[in-house]
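Board notes, transcribed. Complex of a protein with flavin-adenine dinucleotide.
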Amino acid sequence: MPAAFLDRLASLIGAQHIVTDAQDMEPYLVERRGLYHGKALAIARPANTAEVAAVVALCHETDTAVVPQGGNTGLVGGQIPDTSGRQLILSLARLREVREVDLASNTMVVEAGMTLAEVQQAAEKAGRLFPLSLASEGSCTIGGNLATNAGGTAVIAYGNTRELVLGVEAVLSDGRVLSSLSKLKKDNTGYDLKDLFVGSEGTLGVITAAVLKLFPRPQSIETAFVGLADPHHALKLLQLAHEEAGNAIHTFELIPRIGIEYVLRHVASARDPLTEPHKWYVLLELTAQRRDGVADTMNAVLEAALEQGIIEDAALAASLDQAKQFWALREDMSEVQRLEGGSIKHDVSVPIASVPDFIDEASAAVLKAVPGGRLVPFGHLGDGNIHFNLSQPVGADKQAFVARWYEINAIVHGVVARYHGSISAEHGIGQLKRDLLPAVKDPTALDVMRAIKKALDPKGIMNPGKVL
Ligand code: FAD
């Protein structure tokens, strides 16, 4: 069957666009954290929507499972096939066109395989902003961003990916193309099908293109690195910033001192942002459309925060270069944890007001279970989304530590549940959290999800074993 299948696949997309060599397949088979290592029948790299549709139709006919893959930066194993060697990875990497930019409607139609950085650049070239921003933006694709409903560092100002999408083109499990590339802001003609595909992690169909919303580019940006005592003070700063700066807040990211120390240890160009070390930091960015700037607003926030004893110190970026250095401290956080040995991760959210109490409670519970563990809770405080990560104790055995992944998850997720939070704020479910879902999701909601899956993918060929 594989030889016959591969021959037919070659007739659809060209043999040169099918990867079967073991060494060449390897980068598609491994998740970057090394948590998952799959096998595949082959990697298919179609060039356009028609070819994607033809490949999926062939898979439908032959009962072949399809694993859509964009930039392979997903953090829950959704893009990695199982170990049977019978699943086909469908890479969207060759679908890279900007199909249209409509400045009057403030929309852009892009194909799924463009990296997020390329989409941002295309928007910039058109004099607009596409505000989705992630540390993985150089490699992740816009199709993957939609499929995972990615969050990132500008959610506080612009919302998740879902809020940045007006329309979607997707190939269904039988090879039909659902063309819902609507630019309409208002369209109440029944169920919103695009929203089914956003966040579906490749389990309902293959996203091939999307209509994205564009925004005016900010005329002024002020970036500050703030030192403070703890997350409780960070929450007070957030409230103060809301009162003083309103919707000028573009980013509000929480970082513990240990995270800065990791970056200083592993990134030669990194500099301590403030003269003295502080236990916690906030990266605060304000933006405005006005040319007269937000410097006064930023100064008012920081002065009031100093006066009220909310913050201990702050540095304002004096140049674009310095702002980039501040941002690099935040963006290097994921990579440097890997260099510190084993790391057990959580991508959770709780109501914003509960974040400090959640961090206190989860920290105490985790350290009781892992004395000497190094806590690295960081992330999007402004959205209530914390990456509650735990680095192995210094000198501990990495394998033995990582083997405790689900035990530590249970402790942290128990605290999340008490605060009515979510066990997956922005990374999705994939395979990593699939078995955790039934315990936290309303049973009726799960039934509805299964019914939708069955209706759209009756043969169960779309990314099986993920999410449900
Ligand atoms: P992949 O990893 O290839 O796939 C992810 C999932 O989407 C899989 O289930 C796959 O099957 C499916 N999929 C991919 N493309 C398609 C398609 N065209 N049609 C249908 N299904 C598809 N995520 C955040 O939300 N916020 C962050 O701040 C963030 N920061 C990160 C920082 C780093 C350093 C890294 C490595 C990752 C980070 N991520 C973050 C996670 C990841 O980058 C996002 O989930 C991203 O959206 C995945 O895009 P991708 O193209 O790499 O998708």
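The chain has a mean pLDDT of 96. The longest helix spans residues 231-245.
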